[in-house]
Each structure stands twice: as structure tokens, then as C-alpha cells.
């Protein structure tokens, strides 16, 4: 099961700056899971990528925008971002998103 | 954003029997997210499907088996199940898995 199981304590915290950090969790070529932690007020700037993304709120509150439409998200809420859709978020209360991508974000491994 | 955002309180609980329930969260054709809640001792029997799956422990403890190899999982731990790999779980302490599939599990929509 090499590489397919990931204990949380074995993940590495990467500081993305601006009050955000990322941990890469379990992944293979088809699916990659990451936790992104935000301080209150931290921003995930609008961006696009060809990968389809799912975001699930583990903790905190977020204003999340996809293709110009915004929703407020709380723990347990989830959203799909189609490939190439412009999306971004603002953290309203410190917390963490679980983001899952298909296929894997190879750019995160560099 | 029709169908792409799902507030947790708008999801529907489906009783799967044997101490397990499922909620379908946000999904599109490429990614589907579901929460599966287990009572202590409840079993997700060994099974296969062609979809690649990621399981993330939201709460509780689980013994999770993929292709005959088992690990014990706690909150924050994650695992990828390759397509067609035999997998199953036993809940050691009541809790919830977040499962994400690619592509969507159309059989869950019937």
C-alpha cells in the first residue's frame, strides 16, 4: 500500500505565505488530496487549472467564488470546481479546506 | 453554480443498514463526494468498483483494508483506493469517512 495511505502526522506543512499552509495527503495519479489551512482574512487568489477540484470545509468559514458566483461555506459544506473554472476564496474565520483534485496536481510535487 | 455547491444541511441521509448511513455531497461527472457514517463495529464489506476512491477520516477510528493489506486510520488520515482494488473497512470507534470518487458513482444516484 506504498504511498496510498498517509497518516496525518507524516504529512509535511508547506508555508504558502499570506496566512496559508498546505499539506499533501494521500494521492495517486487519479486523485490527490490536500489540506489547506487559512488564517482569518487569508486569500486564495482567483486562479484556474485544468484539473477538476472538490473543496470540503473541515473547519472555519469561507467565501468561495467559482465563475463569478460566491457562496459562504461552513464545516461540512462542499463544492465542485469544474476544470478551467476561475475560482478563489477568502477565509472569514480561520479554518481548513480539504481539496481533492483529479487528476493529481503534479505542480504541487515540484 | 447549480448542483456544484452543497450545504451540509441540504444533504439527504440514506440508511444503508448495519449501522451505516450515507450522504451524497457536492459532485459532478468527474468527482463525487459522500460522507459515510458508521456505528462502532459497523462494516463496509469488501467490494470493488472501477472508480478510483479517496477516503479521509473525518471522525472515529477505522481498520481499512486495500488489496489484503490493513491499516488503522484516525481523523486526518487518508488513503487512496485504486480502481478495481478490493477494499473494505471495520469501524473501531463510531465516526465518519469522507469518500471521494472519480468518476462519479452513478450507481449512488439510482
Model description:
2 copies of one chain form a homodimer. Chain A has no helices and 9 strands. Chain A is mainly beta and 110 residues long. Chain A has a single domain (8-109), classed as Jelly Rolls (Sandwich), CATH 2.60.120.10. In chain A, a hairpin with a 2-residue loop joins strand 6 and strand 7. Chain A is globular. The interface between A and B is large, with 38 and 38 residues.
Task: List its salient traits.
Jelly Rolls; eight-stranded antiparallel beta sheet; homodimer; mainly beta; 61% strand; 0% helix; 110 residues
Summarize the structure.
By secondary structure, the first copy, chain A, is mainly β. Helix content of chain A is 0%, strand content 61%.
List the helices and strands and how they pair.
The structure is a homodimer of 110-residue chains.
Chain A: E1 5-6, E2 13-17, E3 20-27, E4 32-38, E5 43-47, E6 52-66, E7 69-73, E8 78-81, E9 87-102
Which protein chains are joined by the largest interface, and how many residues does each one contribute?
A: A-B, 38 and 38 residues
Structural class of chain A: mainly beta
Per DSSP, what share of the residues of chain A sits in E-state strands of 2 or more residues? Answer: over 45%
Please mark out the parts of chain A with pLDDT under 50 across 5 or more consecutive residues, or reply none: none
CATH superfamily of chain A: Jelly Rolls
Mean pLDDT of chain A: 96
Largest sheet of chain A: 8 strands, antiparallel
Described by the principal axes of the CA atoms, the overall outline of chain A is globular
How are helices and strands ordered from N to C of chain A? EEEEEEEEE
Helix content of chain A: under 10%
- The helix count of chain A comes to 0
Oligomeric status of the shown chains?
A: homodimer
User: What is the C-alpha radius of gyration of chain A, as a whole number of Å?
Assistant: 13 Å
The number of distinct β-strands of chain A equals 9
Termini separation of chain A comes to 23 Å
The CATH topology of chain A is what? Answer: Jelly Rolls
Number of domains of chain A: 1
CATH class of chain A: Mainly Beta
| CATH architectural name of chain A | Sandwich
